[in-house]
Amino acid sequence: MTFCFFLLLLLTTFTPALPRWSLQRPLVGQSVSFSCEITKQFKDDYVYWYQKKEKEFRIILDLKKSSGATDKRYGHPQKDDFTAEKTQTGCELKINKVTMDHSASYFCSCYKDVLHSSGYYIFGSGTKLLSVVKPVVSVYPAASRVHVEGSSCLLCLASAMFPPVVQFSWKRQKNNGPLEDLTSTGEEQLELSESGCITSILLVQQQKDSSYKYSCFVKHEGGTVEAQTQQDDLKPTED
Questions:
Q1: Are 161 and 219 in contact, with CB atoms under 8 Å apart?
Q2: Where does the chain hold its CATH 2.60.40.10 domain(s)?
Q3: Cα 60 from chain centroid?
Q4: Which residues does the UniProt record annotate as the domain Ig-like (predicted)?
Q5: Category of 157 on φ-ψ map: left (φ > 0), alpha (ψ -120 to 50) or beta
Q6: Domain 136-228 belongs in CATH node 3.30.70.920
């Protein structure tokens, strides 16, 4: 496909006659699909699928409605990640395994013939895809374990997630007993944000709590992730 053809597509009428604008936020590794409803006004046998990123608008593939055959010979670098098939009302584009590189907007289009005139492409209003990545969570004692007045600190680090928005909660357990939520126990908690990671700091009164196991729960759009301390993580260190 030449640059002139892409420019022609961008300058044609953008009529929301196909799918309505929508937003999908799948987890990385999941599959996702986009539907394109084709009305009877479109006599042309081909449906085209496009991917739009911030500075790039590219055709992915076309699908022949009569046979269901697809053509990926448009040079898209991720072409093997996509499949397309006919449906009762039109066609569907599918990504079998979502990655962060698939975050983009997706459009379908069909060519509309006009009596006694040149036809034009009509585009659907599109679907925006934002790939979601669960956080990597780890819990460990602070480098300086024993602080003033017999207190210790636990750090819960959440990193490598998208979007970078999380909610922390702490729980503790003694001798395989029930989990106790620390939200209402008065334990002091701090939260720090740096590029690419967010840390929750729990201040623990060591003299009474060193026999507990502590768990950090990180709530994220992609799901809740838990990390747990070992029983001896808060035991005093000897000088």
A1: no
A2: 3-129, 136-228
A3: 21
A4: 19-108, 135-235
A5: beta
A6: no
